[in-house]
Structure formats: structure tokens, C-alpha cells
């Protein structure tokens, strides 16, 4: 079997899926993101709304994959357990980053900014749209805490299914949405020989400013 490091060091991907030029960009980076997201969906990218969410606590970064559930004039919306590790870290330090990577198109979008909770009404509406099993799961799992074994989790689910049999499952107070209000958004288009196209939008008092970055 080939040694893993031989493979990793020998990998020579040549990105040749397209280019990104100044005249391709919209003035509003959120609108530009929507265009790229629609193109990722049309291209058949698997889970195009999957994103790496990075938080920081006491100078120590932590990343995980979560799903984008909305994008609008405010920013990027996602949902999770407020008491989870990421929830606690966002409460301590509200500055976070998101990263999307669409391999089929050799595209990446990096987003930075301040996160805020969405309104309880917005969280209620989204929670009501989730499958019932996911609603039960939000109650059953004390996300990020130590679990003795899976049997404990399954017993929690069984008890909650009995508790809410024939009833609507309410949203737990510890579960809801966030919106990342972005102040930096970078669009990256892979190019051959690592000479990629990179454009950074930065928020300013006069509106969004755009810079081409060195690859």
C-alpha cells in the first residue's frame, strides 16, 4: 500500500474549472454568494450548503461542519443547540468564520463577521418545519456533553416520543438560530499552478469595497 504521506505530498491537482475576473462580480457580496450557491446546486454539488463553522474560545479555535439554512440581506443563517460547544463559544466570542468549498467547480467562499441570535419567532418557524424525528432529537441530545453510551440517547428518544405522542413538539429554549452578519467575504476560484483568483469584499462606512488578493 502506498504510504499516505507519499500520496499527500505527490497530489498535484490542476484546477481548470473557470476564472473569476472583476467584471464577473456583483456589487453586493451576498448577491454574489447567491449566484454561486445556485450554480453549485445546478452543478450537482453534494450538500452545497455544508459549511465549516469556526469559533474561538480563550484563543483556541474549533471547527465543525454545519448546514446553511438561509441567506438574506442580514447575512448567513444556521441553527444549532445554544448549549453546545459552538453555542457556548459564540456566546463568549461572537466573531466567527464560515467556509464553503465546492470541489466540482473549484470554488471557495470564506466569510467572517459577528454572529447574533435570530428572533424566537424565526427559530420557532424553522423548528416547526423540521422532521418530527429531528425535533425529538433536539430535546433528546445534550449536544457536546459526555454520553455514557448510545443506549442512554435511545432511551431519551423513546421517553420523549411517548411524552409528545399525538402532540406537537415545541422548540426547546436551548435550540435556535443564528445569523452571521458579515464584514469580510472572499471568493476564491481555483486556477492551474496555484495561481488562483481571489477577491475580498470588506465592509466600510461607504459600503462594500473589493480587492483582488494575491493567490
Task: Please describe what this structure looks like.
There is one protein chain. The chain has 215 residues and is α+β, with helices and mostly antiparallel strands. It has one domain (18-130, 172-213): Roll (Pnp Oxidase, Chain A). The protein is built from six helices and nine strands; from the N terminus they run H-H-E-E-E-E-H-E-E-H-H-H-E-E-E. Strands 1, 2, 3, 4, 5, 6, 7, 8 and 9 form a nine-stranded antiparallel sheet that branches. A hairpin with a 2-residue loop joins strand 1 (50-57) and strand 2. Helix 5 (132-140) crosses helix 6. The longest helix is centred in the N-terminal third of the chain and has 15 residues, at 29-43. The protein is globular. The mean pLDDT is 95.
